[in-house]
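[agent] plan:
  1. take the single chain provided in the ticket
  2. run structure prediction with default settings
  3. attach structure tokens to the ticket
  4. add a short note for the reviewer (M.T.)
[agent] executing step 1
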Amino acid sequence: MPVADLHVHTTRSDGQLSPTAVPAVAADAGLDAVALTDHDRVHADLDGPLVERAGVTVISGIELRVETDTGARVDLLGYGVTPTDALRRECERLAADRRQRAAAMIDCVEDHLGITLDVEPFDGIGRPHLARAIATHPGCQHDETDAFETLIGRGDPCYRPRAVPSFERGRRLLTDACAVVGLAHPFRYDDPEMALTLANRLDAVERHYPYGRSVDTARIDRLLSTTELLPTGGSDAHDDRLGRAGVDASEYRAIRAAIERHAT
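[agent] step 2 finished; step 3 output follows
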């Protein structure tokens, strides 16, 4: 049973829970701590890297997509965020890019299906918002999964890429602003081995994650045993099902200690 879910999304990006609702939901799930890791957005309403809310420790976090030298894209998780001006500027740039990308994808879907979607570009908009708008349109036969698989997934007719920072730039931005920077869900990428080699340039790697399939977690365990990387973990919740994955008590203590050291 995890004591902390370190990968949770809110309505500030593509999650369904508001940031203020997360602590109570986390408490109901039996969690001691939760990290808010919205895409490309910092939580200005948190007045520190660790905040106590509803009996739960809320960790200020962020998830940032970056592009490697090979052109592959991976996600980095930052924990214990104290935003720098450089990170704020990059988040603003990424927000504008998200809005422009969403507008192009909405136009494409509407032209492709001959419908008008009930969604407009806004800060934090992501493909899940578009998928839900497609699925709920009365004249559309696609559900959310089908929308991703046939319309707005990578390689599909209405997919548009985002202009994300390089791995090195993203790593520097997060390292300057965060206590811990880790690689997210290594087995979600086409080349997990390549992704795991990047972890050696970070502080942590996401060990616990609800992949929904068998993965070689022993590969991560071997990496952890031969490095000083911290294991992290979380549900990657975009809904209200927190705690489906996360870190145990000793793993959480190590993450929290790193954040506390960084804050002093």
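[agent] step 4 note for reviewer: The chain has a mean pLDDT of 96.
[agent] ticket updated
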